[in-house]
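Troubleshooting entry. Yesterday's outputs looked truncated, so today I'm pasting the complete records for two proteins to confirm everything comes through intact. If either block looks cut off, that's the bug. Protein one:
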Amino acid sequence: MRTVLLSTPPGALGGNRTTALRWAQQLRTMGWTVCRTGHDSERQAASRADLILALHAVRARPEVDRWLARRPEAKLVVACTGTDIYESKDSAQPLLERADRIIVLQERALDELSAGQRRRAHVIHQSTPRRSVPQREAPEIAVIASLRAVKEPLLAAAASRLLPEESALRVVHVGPSICAELEDEVRREQATNARYEWRGNVRRSEALCLLAGARAVVLPSRSEGGANVITEAFAMGTPVLASRVPGNTGLLGEEHPGLFDAGDVQGLARLMLRLEREPRFREDLARRSAMRASLASPEREAAAWRHLLEGLGLGA
């Protein structure tokens, strides 16, 4: 039985944690022994690992260096999860140059790689099972994001303040706090904005229920690698409003009608109002999500992993 060491950023929450857990289960299903960072079996596994899988080309580097020193013959796969190639591109190069294979989460990320890196790159779209589509009569606009500046966590709340008085829309935000200063801002916003509610770090099942029933989900980030929440919205047919950044357009398409410029609070407010007032606009967004549901297929993700491993000589 082959062994993989799975490195995740320290304190990984949200999308990176979801990705790590899903990929670990995928590899176990394929017959691998999976050892994750910080587990008791890490030291023993490092001496026999066939594969090192690192999520984040910058933050995983110290751990990968340590493991490769013990097991230099192990194959190295580096998954670029967002800020490593869009905001810390130079710092990502040492690990990307050493990688036997590189994973990106959407096609536009390939543009950030060198020609040599692209030849070793695989696009693996993140998956989620198809779910029944509920009636979306609730007024909630969902935001599913941790409290980090890059996620622009208060942009949707600010946009809700620009809606006309008669609007029934409200923003429900779930996600862990990893920045005390931002948490203070969020709590002040919640206390003064009747249209905004932050529920903190909730169970994944609760976040998925919110996403399934929401009028739409908003992704206002300044940078994304290929957000889990977008492919989850595809599986549920949930309309998506998103910032026009490569990580979002790589999944949604450049012509997606729910795009707004990063940081454009007025542009987001206009889209939210259209969503409430124009049934055809809402139906178009929902239809576009449903049409892309095949990208989120677990079978497609599994096939992509089999192809990658076979290319490394580590297939079944």
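Protein two, checking that the full record survives here as well:
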Amino acid sequence: MKNLIVLMFALGLSLNANAYELNFSQTTIMNLDAAAEYESLTADDAYHTIGSISVTEIDTPEPAVIPENYVLQEKGLGEIIMSIDKLLALGKKIWAIVEAGRPVVRTTFAPTVSVLPNVENPNVAFEEMENWSMPKVKSYRVVYKNLLGMKVIAFTYGVYYQHGGTYKGKGAYLTGVNVDARDVTVSWGFEFNAASTVVAIANRGSSANPNAGLTIRINYLAKSVLKEIRSSESFHVAGNGQFVVIK
């Protein structure tokens, strides 16, 4: 990977100042010791080898603009995914956001996650909860470039959520947490898939006044005729509205 980064800078490939680079692996990375060795590569090899994956945050309106036919919280909270002393995560643990280079379109219910009080009947408790925020969204543009500096894969993903829900006047909980993709472009010779996974929940507050925390990881898998490229990124959202990308 170090040699590959050296090659990128020698070729003048750079990231925008407001973007960060994603770590990734390729199953058959070439052993490139210097930029001069680039000349020994065929154009086909350079085209099918990823040189960088960059992520840039996109400004999004407040409140969030929810896509047409998109439901943040379906009727019923789904199965229990995880539990700790004061919190339950309910919904769906893993869901696809891109399949075969196309965003997964849902015209009825979106797979969402809620982090709620750990009580005997969370569905009843949810109906009694108050003070939910307006829906919010964080959006990011992800771009894959090959060794020729060409954009070969690009897509935008959005993280939707509502926070601040209280139960019997206490706590700060989460609902409607979901990740979706849009504006996906995949160049000839590449395949691309992406999925979201719930990683962990945590109480960011106290036992008497919980602050729900949820960590989700997005896994990316890109393939060309020469390479298989794997990468991932994670984010953490809390009941008090804090949102952090884990780099």
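Both blocks look complete. Sanity check on protein two: Confidence is low (pLDDT under 50) at residues 1-15, 29-38, 69-74.
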